[in-house]
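So, read this over?
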Amino acid sequence: TSAINYIPLPVYETQFVEVKIDPKEYDALLFFSPSGVTSFLKQNTIPPKIICCCIGETTAAFLRTKLISNPIIYPESPNAYAMLNLVS
C-alpha cells in the first residue's frame, strides 16, 4: 500500500443568517440547500399549507425531517430556473 499525502482546503463555510420574516405574506418558500432550511428555521416557522419548493431531492428530504404536513415540491432538474417555473 502507498500513503496518500493531502492538504485539506476548505472552499466555503456556511454562515447561518438569523432573519425574522412573516411567511404568511408569501405563497411559497424556496429553499436552495439543507443549510438554507436550517438558517430559515432558526428564527422562523413555516405556516401550515404553505408550499415549500426545494432545489432538489436532498434539500426536500432534509426539509421533510423538519415538517410533517406542508406540501414539498422540487423540480426534476435541480436549478433555480426550474424551481421558479415550478412555483409560477
Notes: The CA atoms of residues 6 and 18 lie 35 Å apart. The beta strands are 28-31, 51-54, 72-73. The mean pLDDT is 89.
